[in-house]
Amino acid sequence: MKYGIVLTYRVTPRWLALSRQERNARRATHLDPLFAAHAPRVTARFFDAEAFHAQVTDFAVLETEDLRSYYFLVEALRDTPLISEGYLEFGEIFLGVQDGFQAYERALADPAGSVERGDRA
Q1: How far is residue 66's CA from residue 69's CA, in Å, rounded to a whole number?
Q2: How many H-runs (helices) and E-runs (strands) does the chain carry?
Q3: CA-to-CA distance for 88 and 81, rounded, in angstroms?
Q4: 90 and 7 in contact (C-beta within 8 Å)?
Q5: What is the pTM of this model?
Q6: How far apart are CA 77 and CA 37, in angstroms?
């Protein structure tokens, strides 16, 4: 199953106090390598939202078939100075299953399907 995750976050005034050059250097040092390391298992697209939302400044749309890899990515992000030193704060996280209802219907149609056995996906 493919999972879609919307990871909202907020940049703090501490981040905004940095010059754009400093922000880009910290992004290149701390974020880019993490996302590159997880890219085979977790894809990411980034969006700015500060002009449209008062509580969220940005969000990432992540896709994966491996929730363990997603979880490890988030743990690795939490270990960066950007999070631990208060430059970025996570907001709400939304998780969904791509075409989950179709997988459920396929399982219902399978006589030996996991739905009838009570297995968890």
Answers
A1: 5
A2: 7, 4
A3: 9
A4: yes
A5: 0.83
A6: 12
- H helices present in the chain, as ranges: 13-16, 20-26, 32-38, 67-78, 81-84, 100-109, 114-117
DSSP class of 89: E
Q: What is the pLDDT along the chain (121 residues), one digit of tens a residue?
A: 999 999 999 999 999 999 999 999 999 999 999 999 999 999 999 999 999 988 899 999 999 999 999 999 999 999 999 999 999 999 999 999 998 888 888 888 887 766 554 555 4
Which amino acid belongs to residue 86? Answer: G
Q: What is the pLDDT of residues 24-41, one digit of tens each?
A: 999 999 999 999 999 999
